[in-house]
Amino acid sequence: MNIHEYQGKELLKRYGVTVLDGYVARTPEEAEAAAKKLPGPVVVVKSQIHAGGRGAGRFTDDPNGKGGVRVVKPEAAKEAAAAMIGHTLVTKQTGPEGKVVNQVYVEAGCDIKRELYLSLLVDRETSRITVMASTEGGMEIEEVAENHPEKILKVAVDPASGLYPWAARKLAFGLGLEGKQVGVFTKFVSAMYDAFVNLDMAIVEINPLVVTGAGDVVALDAKVSFDDNALFRHKDIEALRDDSEMDPKELDAVKNDLNYVALDGEIGCMVNGAGLAMATMDIIKLYGSSPANFLDVGGTANAERVTEAFRIITSDVNVKAILVNIFGGIAKCDMIANGIVEASKALTLKVPLVVRLEGTNVDLGKKILAESGLAIIPADNLADAAQKVVDAVKKAA
After folding, report:
1. Residues of the binding site for substrate
2. Residues at the annotated binding site for Mg(2+)?
3. Where do the ATP-grasp domain residues begin and end (predicted)?
4. How many whole angstroms from its chain centre is CA 321?
5. Active-site residue list
6. Separation of alpha carbons 23 and 397, rounded Å
7. How far apart are CA 348 and CA 335, in angstroms?
8. Do both 131 and 67 map to the same domain?
């Protein structure tokens, strides 16, 4: 789950991470009032959307104008906010459709001497939380990794011992920090690590992390994402979710305990188990088409959840066929089959439906589908299912 910059900074501040003073504003008037509370001579008005590249972005109704991050005098904050709130901002990460800005963050100005990069994430290669840092602050880390990989510093943290001060100091020296900056940076990184672990974060990225003229280390931005599977431990954080930033289908899936991610393909997928779902998407690509979604109904799927899954899949106008791939374990094949039949009748499916069942009560499940009277295309294995669903899309074209 992603949250906005202002929300991330508030959480990090609780753990001792240094951030600038600022206030969220949902109207130009609120932005004006916020600017008056902050010291001059300038303030920064930042669009709050779940996407990077806001400063270089452009608003659809003013493509040649300024971006979604503007440094202005306090008296100009209202005008800057009015140009953002309610308008659609397009960045490299939003796609051409952009995102509507519903609020801005009005933040104090900063005396920037250097811009650095700092992040914590779960590294799949080491199975550890890894601290990444770079002297190339303000740039996209992917670009740095491609063009200047030697400028990316990494420290993998042993979960048993936590982040040692010497490891943080090693990063500080690698970034060229000196004097009191080393100690300040060490405390900063340690505070970020504590927040990461205690709040079950998936990633926290500070870009840029700035060194001020006074030698302080400050988070000028904050991108924070959480492990969805741990949100049950953090109801206060779950309450920070901005529904307007989510794809309506993904939001619907969250409310129905379904794991769904919208993609840009043409074959809707309903699978139980994340690994099997990934394999299903891969084989669809192998056979010449592309998945319209990732959808894992989970190991305890029932008829109601199957119906909701079908409803979400069919709400995507790009879906030209549906592939159901179920390995029956806790969710037995006959129960899934009944759910498929009920959902197909309730929603009046208008696209081809290919079903592959395997596992507990598979024969009974296949019998239920065969006797349903519905135009369901059975498949014997995953390869057979992929071939049939791709052929069905071609015939429908």
Report:
1. 272, 329-331
2. 207, 221
3. 9-235
4. 27
5. 117, 205
6. 52
7. 20
8. no
